[in-house]
Amino acid sequence: GRGDPGGARVGITRRPWYGADATRPVSSLAGVTMSVVVLIAYAIGVGLGLLAARSTRFGMVWPAIVRTQILVAAIALSIVAVWRIDNVDSVLWPLLMALAMALMFFIAWLTARGPNRDAHAALQTWAANANTAFFVIPVGAALGGSAGALAAVLMDRLATPLYAFWVWLLRRGAPRQQRRRTSFIDQAPVIALGVGLLLHLTGPAPAWTATVTLWAVPLLAASGAAIFIGSVLHHTQRIDPRPGIRRWLALVGVRIALLMPIAVLAPTLSLRVVALLCALSIPAFAAPQVSTIYGYADPVVAAGSRYGWFFGAAGLAAALVIT
Q: Which of 281, 285, 282, 280 is nearest to 232 (CA)?
């Protein structure tokens, strides 16, 4: 109906997908609880990542660990989120955010120089991209409840074909030779997207899928932080970030310029929070992760991993202000 633009199936309860009311989509108690849970999850993840970085054994099998995390995240997010899509209204604004990422890559590709241009444009775009899975989704859930979580998850999953294209480019130009069978794991998110679409065609998603989406958030925060720390401290990624700072800042500026108008114009508070967190985000965890898998050592990735936290702090503060 007119009062339920997102449909009943997107939220945890039968109410608009953007939350109980458009000005404050989550109760203060629920928001504080989820915020604490997410912060604890991040702390646990950082501790695990530091332990892994100190272990030679973990260093040798790190690509396999990263691929396992990719597979788990694909199952937890892609299948459930796409299954829960209710109508075009619930997809439009997250799709615009995903298209902003595609435009960002096109600009990076146009301005890229040197050998293996396609792969480095993809890698550098990822380094300057928003951390959708491990920052925007957890913080969106903490501040926007199930509405914020679903908006962030949809945006992240709608960008899955773009991520798949980047992975293809990175595998094609990888300095480290890749086994063909690993491509199925590397492309797990897009495969899971297809599974979610098939389930969507069979009928409405059951109510328990909303709970899966919401409580997958702290688990993904912990695993994402662990994998990020372990990847950044991996011996292949200990490179000087200074040559990559200017390029990284330019691409981050493109990201902010593309996403800030969405943060202003989006019709609901949950969508505005998600767009704002995308514009001002912590470093994307995927860039150093895929670098360790494929053998890249790019100073733009190193710059993003070291200095992107300042933008994330600004984004979190701004999101707290508007909610």
A: 285
Helices marked H in the chain — which ranges? 28-53, 56-60, 62-73, 80-83, 89-111, 117-128, 137-158, 160-172, 183-186, 188-202, 208-232, 245-265, 269-279, 286-294, 299-307, 309-322
Cα–Cα–Cα angle for 124, 249, 159, rounded to 5 degrees: 45
124 with 108: CB under 8 angstroms?
Answer: yes
The string of pLDDT tens digits covering residues 234-278 is: 677 788 999 999 999 999 999 999 999 999 999 888 899 999 999
Q: How far is CA 121 from the centre of its chain?
A: 18
> CA 290, CA 202: separation in Å to the nearest integer?
34
Please, are residues 130 and 277 in contact by the beta-carbon 8 Å criterion? yes
DSSP 284: P
Q: Is 180 exposed, middle or buried (0-12, 13-18, 19+ CB in 10 A)?
A: exposed
293 confidence band (pLDDT: 50, 70, 90): confident
CA neighbours within 13 Å on the CB side: how many for 254?
23
Give the per-residue pLDDT at 14. Answer: 35
Give the burial string for 130-157 (b: 16+ CB within 10 Å, else e).
bbbbbbbbbbbbbbbbbbbbbbbbbbbb
